[in-house]
Amino acid sequence: MATLGVFLDSGVLFRVLRRRRVFEAVHLYEPAAREFGLNLVLFRPRGLSRRRRRVRGYSVPGFRPVSVPIPEVVHNRTLQSASSRSGVRWLQARGVHVFNPIVPASKHAKHLLLNRSAEVRPYLPSAFRLAPGWPARLETLQRRSGQFFVKPSFGSRGQGVIRIASAGGGRYRVDGVRHRVVGRRGLRRCVRQAARRGPHILQEGIELARYQGQPFDIRVHLQRGEGGHWNVPGMAARRAHSGRFVTNLTRGGSAHRVREVLAAAFPGTDRERIYEHIEQASLAVGRAMASSYPRVADLGLDVGLDRDAHPWILEVNLRMLRLSLRDTGEHEAWARVYRNPVAYAHHLLTTGGHMGEAGTT
Ligand SMILES: Nc1ncnc2c1ncn2[C@@H]1O[C@H](COP(=O)(O)OP(=O)(O)O)[C@@H](O)[C@H]1O
Ligand SMILES: [Mg+2]
Fold this sequence. Notes:
361 residues; 32% helix; 19 strands; binds adenosine-5'-diphosphate; six-stranded antiparallel beta sheet; D-amino Acid Aminotransferase, Chain A, domain 1; alpha+beta; seven-stranded mixed beta sheet; Rossmann fold; binds magnesium ion; single chain
């Protein structure tokens, strides 16, 4: 029986072993592993015994310490730390099928990659790197909604995200940790301050549709599964906390069932059509990512809808935190999130990873 290794960061692995509430529900891998006839081992970067060519990890079920030969296929769920990157490279050099690979993580790099895809472009807000000369390019970002976003290129969880909207008469409303209205010089000062904290991108702002009076966006889980095909196991809507403009759950956002939110936000519109439109846009993102990084298999998209229900790809996360579907109680969708990687592992093992790599469905 072949072994599927699940590669986790140490901190996450230990919380799993202590059965702490964590975003990895590893027990959900189990029924899928039985279905596809795979052994499961959880391991962390330090579990690689490079000289002995073995992996020390923990069995699922049971979480017993085990030592096994290098797994044939590895589901990489680590963040891209130095030790996990080196582990991934070492495994790849041994011929192990590793999904997900190491991918440039900056928001700017991902924007450039997606912007190359003609089928993604209609869903991609304009964006560019914050660099000298940025004020001259502002107009393209404000064209549609009169607002733009400044975001740390390596940020997450809504940290450091600033929204800037024109307030008329050459004034701008700046919403970040604080709210203020400034003139052109004040605006330049705010943006320069952000630039000092590291690389940032400027992105066209989308006037997000609202639910219960607050803006919302949609977390789309996007994965490859059976046959190597891209699919969307589930989506969850995230509504901003009142007075906030970011929907991140770590910033007070709340998770809601997507169909309920679509029905409420767009009364009189066919919500299934909106759902499918979001799905189509997301699948295009999967194909674009995979054309540069063939074994990308696990993405979390932040998709905003404007007032016309047109989807906009606000962000592509390389390792999605899998909270939202649990929070909305969509257990079947949540189970699919864990079945997909096992199905994909099985696909890689049976085809050697040569077929369906560009998986188009
Ligand atoms: N261009 C945009 N237009 C409207 N809202 C946005 C835009 N970009 C980000 N947001 C809001 O800010 C949140 C955080 O931005 P995001 O790019 O996802 O950064 P992070 O990596 O911190 O999650 C999004 O979930 C969304 O609610
Ligand atoms: Mg985000």
